[in-house]
Input
Amino acid sequence: MARNPVFALLWLVILFFLAWPIAAACAGAWLILQPFEGCFRFVKDINDFLEKLITWPRDVGRAIGDCSSRCPTPF
Output
């Protein structure tokens, strides 16, 4: 795969303005719901979805380091 530093800059902008704010907003809800995962079955599905969004900045960071042309998505 070709390494293009322009993509690294694009992913860096996405990291600062999309990935981190979304992950920060979801982290609070995830922390509040975490203790109830054992009590209510539907909370596990919600937590799994939130966890994908919370770990999205890691995938964006990996794309920045690789200068990947593939858009990192949380899903």
